[in-house]
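Worked example

This section walks through a single chain of length 61. The input is the sequence exactly as stored; nothing has been trimmed or padded.
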Amino acid sequence: MTAESGTPAEGALGDLRVVEYAQGVTGPFCGKAFADLGADVVKVEPLGGDRSRGHGPFPGG
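Given that input, the structure is written out below as C-alpha cells.
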C-alpha cells in the first residue's frame, strides 16, 4: 500500500515490506532491487552511515 493513496503499490513485490541491515555493496544492491520491484524497503544504518557512501564514482566530482 502506498502511504499517500491507500492503494496497492505497483510491482511484483508491492505488498512486501523489507528491513535492510546490510552494508557494503551487495546487500544494499539487493535492497535496491527489492525496491525497484515495488517493495517498501527501510534501510537501517549506523549513526555514521553506510561505509559505502564514500565510494565513487561521483559524476562531475
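What to look for: The mean pLDDT is 82.
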